[in-house]
Amino acid sequence: MFFRIPKSALTKFNADRARLNTNIIQNGERHHDGGRHWYHAGDLPDGRIIECDEDMAFPIQDLSGSSPRSAYKAQFTYSMEDINRVAVIDLTNEDSSSDEEEL
Fold first, then answer.
1. Strand, helix or coil at 26?
2. Is 60 left (phi over 0), alpha (psi -120 to 50) or beta?
3. Please, are residues 27 and 19 in contact by the beta-carbon 8 Å criterion?
4. Average pLDDT rounded to a whole number, residues 11-26
5. Where are the domains of the chain?
């Protein structure tokens, strides 16, 4: 799932991520329950745990200037085109010699 972050909210959003990262480090970093990894980012007033699926170690980047986009889409830090570009896995450089050595 992806959600859009308005450029105007990026500084506060990344400050919140940094705070959560500090909490995660203080709470023992990554936890493992069965087949699930999660990060303890704090406690809610009712005693429930704030669980995150990442450690929040890296800030969200503003990729709004990295490709052409409409004025509306330019209000946000990234678009689906940016996500597609950074999510592409390059299989053309895969080293197949290690497979041959194992035979």
1. helix
2. beta
3. no
4. 96
5. 7-92
